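@channel anyone free to eyeball this complex?
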Amino acid sequence: MHILVTNDDGVTAPGLLALAQEMKKLGQVTVFAPDRNWSASGHVKTMDRPLRVRETILADGTPAFMSDGAPSDCVALALLGLIEEKIDIVVSGINPNANIGHDVTYSGTVTAAMEAVIDGVPGLAISLDSPENHGGKLDYTTAASVARRVAEKVTAEGLPQGVVWNVNVPYLKENELKGFMVTRQGLRLYRDELDRRLDPRGRPYYWIGGQAPTGVDEPGTDFGALRAGYVSITPLQLDLTAREAMRRLENWKF
Amino acid sequence: MHILVTNDDGVTAPGLLALAQEMKKLGQVTVFAPDRNWSASGHVKTMDRPLRVRETILADGTPAFMSDGAPSDCVALALLGLIEEKIDIVVSGINPNANIGHDVTYSGTVTAAMEAVIDGVPGLAISLDSPENHGGKLDYTTAASVARRVAEKVTAEGLPQGVVWNVNVPYLKENELKGFMVTRQGLRLYRDELDRRLDPRGRPYYWIGGQAPTGVDEPGTDFGALRAGYVSITPLQLDLTAREAMRRLENWKF
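replying in thread with the prediction:
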């Protein structure tokens, strides 16, 4: 099995290293990640400028490709032929924060997996729900092991066509996990605030600030599963049609 | 009614001007758009740098705000309080190309409307299906008029909560339109190719190239409606859960 490993935090991120190391237990790994952080950068296809691709090595000596494109660009470049060997699965992560609820269209981690699926390859996004940042030294052991178990299952059982697996892992030791739960996308509650400041020349600039997002703790959702100590696995589709609204709109006259 | 007009092609785009002029027939218009092109830039929330906001004027003298953020950032800034008056609806466009099928998560036009909906305000995305670029001089008259008619209808009837209206308009005169069709999201067929070139110093760089995307011409879809000469109105939701896949996965043991 040939696994493409990518992320949205950039090629130097510890979560990428942990994921690449664990995926090597399943087969051949190619790492192809952005050369910088692209968090909350969305689903990008870079068309107005060309992209550079350079070779680098991870902290453990693993060879890797990096590009100046977004996570989804890295996946597109790899699948369009920059990586010659056939890729069987794309695994994106490990993101140091959960990607749940409305996060999924913003998330570079998730949109990299979307890009894989659009290109006909199974895509998994792996995120760690770490409410604190632990001085920047997060333990990715559990999330990496979960990623391996899910990737193994997906390749054994076959993934329904056109589905992205969005996997979120609580910040627990593996033996403390309550189990795995197949969930629906829940509701994120963003608490963004406009933070206006003045630069040294007295001109305003604006941060999108405020507290970290929270969510609605409903059973059966991604947010609910994490709160209860379960790994959340949400299958996502790329057909966004609101079918209920569609039926209502069909009676409208324009 | 107070209408926020934005786009993903930047504040100087003729499609934005045409939309702003037409929306003035419905109420007060505030224009707030990116200062450059953000096509296929996805759903962005810029958090690693602050954003600048500047005042400018459109080609007809209409005052406008522009920022160095993405379309979705412009909407977020406006709704977080940079625009003090309550905004009743966000209208994004007019994009000079269709946004159908899988385009919707890439599209800056559509993700600006998504941002509005996440923030609790109705969001409309308006795109023109112009197969040729007509020397850069597209006629936005029909699409602008359609945008006004849809926005009028939405505010009169009330939009189902949490739904983005994705409107695509064929490149026809208004009296040549076959009508309006409520559609589901169809299937895009991307024809991207890796285009490897060498720079003046002999080092490779890569364009994501290839022919423009096409689609599967099925009745009832966005692509099918446009092909048949209809305005396509697709209600989109932000819950991407693949419910059919979910049922299948519930039997899996991890």
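from a first look: The mean pLDDT of chain B is 95.
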